[in-house]
Amino acid sequence: MKTSAFIIFFVVVLAVYGLVNSYIFIRGLQAIPAGSSWRTWYIAGFWLIASTFVLARIMERACPCGFTGIITWIGSFWLAFMLYFILVALFLDFARLLDHFFHIFPQSFLADYQHTKLIVLYATLALVTLVVAGGFVNARIPAIRKLELHVGKTVTGDKSLNIVMASDIHLRTIIAKRKANRLVETINSLHPDIVLFAGDVVDEDLAPVIENNLGANLVQIKSKLGVYAITGNHEYIGGVEPAVKYLSEHGITMLRDTAMLIDNRFYIVGREDRDRQRFTGKERKELNELTKEVDFSRPVILLDHQPFNLERAVKLGIDLQLSGHTHHGQMWPFNYITSAIYEISCGYKLIGKTHFYVSSGFGTWGPPVRLGNRPEIVQIILHFD
Predict the structure, then answer these.
(1) What CATH code is assigned to 144-384?
(2) Banded pLDDT at 103 (limits 50, 70, 90)
(3) Which of 5-9, 151-155, 277-281 bottoms out in mean pLDDT, i.e. has the lowest?
(4) pTM of the prediction?
(5) Intra-chain end-to-end CA distance of the chain, in Å
(6) Among 21, 79, 139, 328, who pairs with 360 as Cys (CB 3.0-4.6 Å)?
């Protein structure tokens, strides 16, 4: 990404972050009585916590250590609190607007308005804390999705293939040893023939991955035919070459606009992430160019991180495409946005003769919180003629 474009992007994101926090801050401050000593604590505490996310993004790369980890956890959780605080604040303001015109609140509710605002503040804190806590627990319990699919092509040898697939692991300070152990243990318990990672194996910053030696977990994955992965947008955000080098050194075969014949039975085609052009100025290969040496009489499995332009895979005759990226919104109500953007935001769909599966992902970006969907590892038993 060009420096000027990055600066503009950073300034815009920082401005939006600041405006949202300012709105929440003002609405919260209005609920605390004037002259109360709690106002001073609220002002200092609010902006200290609100600054942790930005501070963590800087420190995580420059100084990965225990203190940075604490700041990262606080800042990540704050993003979830911020989302639901702003939703509640907007809902309450809408209710106030309706009351202004239609007087929907009872008079007793408005008799001591300052006291009422304080009660609403306490209720909002309790509600949002409960929601975020539930989302945190949900994000720590991955589901195993199981599918059996048929591809009408003849192969020699075994007539089925046990694929275990995961995407959007986002290894970093938040997704560290415990989560990596669960990933490996779950994959190994499914006794895969082949393991496929559909991008975003690591998050933006590689330093916490190295600091926590998470590669030591990855090398423990057991698979008959190996472990293969593609790049996602987050590998490019953090620096794709160091990320690819690290993953390659820890037992993962990286497919970068590459088609490979596996076990003389089927092909795995791995695409570079579509954001390659944005970050490097270089286009990835077109799908027809990437597969020009592929024998389509054999089954062909495509890994493409972002599930755009699905019709191209159908037209080309791809048998199975595996993608991720969407997180299915990760936190409600963002799932409505991803469902509007992508033809498949999450789950399985057959288009023509091409099977598609878009995973909601194993890890999380930002808050370690999921609401409205589950993290997952996907097992696909692919049957051949």
Answers:
(1) 3.60.21.10
(2) confident
(3) 5-9
(4) 0.93
(5) 46
(6) 328
